[in-house]
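Escalation from tier 1.

The customer reports that the assembly of two entities below gives different structure tokens on two consecutive runs. Tier 1 could not reproduce it. I'm attaching the input and our single run for tier 2 to review.
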Amino acid sequence: MENFSIFDVIGPVMIGPSSSHTAGASKIGYMAAQIFEHEINKVDFYLHGSFYKTHSGHGTDRALLAGIMKFKPDDRNIRYAFKIADKEGIEYRFIEEDLGEVHPNSVKIVMYSKDGETEQIIGSSVGGGRILIVKIGDTDVEVDGDYSTLITKHYDKPGMIAKVSTILSKYKINIAFMKVFRQMKGANASLIVQVDDFIGEDVISTIKEAEGIIDVKFIKSLDM
Amino acid sequence: MIIRKANDVLKICEKENIPIWEVAVRYEMAESGLSRQEIVEKMGSNFLHMKASINAGLNERQDGVECKMFKDDAKKIMKYRETNKPLSGYVISKAVAYALSVMEINCSMGRVVAAPTAGASGVLPATIVSTLETLELGDDVGVNGLFTAGLVGIIIGKNASLSGAIGGCQAEIGSAAAMGAATAVEISGGTPKMAFDAAAIAIKSMMGLVCDPVAGLVEVPCAKRNGMGTSNALVAADMALAGISSVIPFDEVVMAMHKVGRSMPGSLKETAEGGVAVTPTGLRLKKEIFGE
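Tier 1 run:
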């Protein structure tokens, strides 16, 4: 864990009882909803390890659901999340599942919208309320919510990273951190770029048009 | 500004002739790009939330949601110290009441400041506010103190862990006690070296502490351990202020803590599968709260 802020340690201001199981959980839910972008009318939470074992006592279930409804971790309405979701007609389930080699406090969230869109993410609560989204769909990622993040899906071939960074530099967007993942050589790869600035639609569509790019996603920082 | 170890901080303190909290403010300015004023205001707000969480547990009732395994412990000890001579003294007994108060707000789904986590959120408010009251100092000193605490926490986080699921309770309440001890020393006018000595003494006294929440809830034994972590912080600060150093330096203590955390089995790291969580009473309480 590099790049600690003092406010990661003194903070956040949050609803108890557990920074990892309550505040972290609500952040993962919030990020999931932000990544999905559609209005959610059904959501399944698959909880791993100690996350499942202790979830109801820590209000992890309420917090995840509150996050999906975009409540922030210091919102006093978190305790009423079930009631509010019922009222808004959101279906939800909590299921135990072994998610494999992940942080002990991890959850897979599968979201559905009215118009048939669906998306799934895996997020981990890594301590002190800090989180990491490690998978979006079938793509490995690392999104911590502290920085806005650009994720590309592209063909694994020379020059792709240069293409993306050239476009970002043209729009004066500063790259803070960058990581590359791939499934296997020559297949699909993805580039995770954490940036200091907001990336507008114009930049996204310029990257999308670049040869070799399959898809581009921009995820705003949590800013809480 | 690259800070990984207490030694990095001590070097800057010595070179610039500044306290730890000032290094922390400069570190945060460099990390975040925010101005000094913005950072201090944000910390000021955290400090006020901390004070509010102490007062809430001592004075208000939470609506509807209550802790499942205890009630009004903070009020009990406040009342006791008014009518008795507390054996641990008026300062420690009051500080313990403060810590219990915050923990009661936390487990009743009220608002607290994680420091470094919610499960350990009683220690810092209790240590800092009681120290300010003892020395008759103002809130601004307390806000500075939170910067000291934060930087100590960052060093522990970078070299060990601040999560019970990774390092056991030593990583949560042990870290909070270390952060509180260093802060109490700086508030009292001790040197940066004394502050890290106090932090080292505090961690050593809680090393190996397991995370064994009954029924998986942040109540038993967490709340009272916050009280003990607070007293640990204050006593460690007194030792350091008296000129006692930690024979093992802070950075080495943190490395030791990291290794101890790694060698701890999963059953003792927040899973509620070991320690007091699986005693006959612990298991009975779990059944009473959640059923089968």
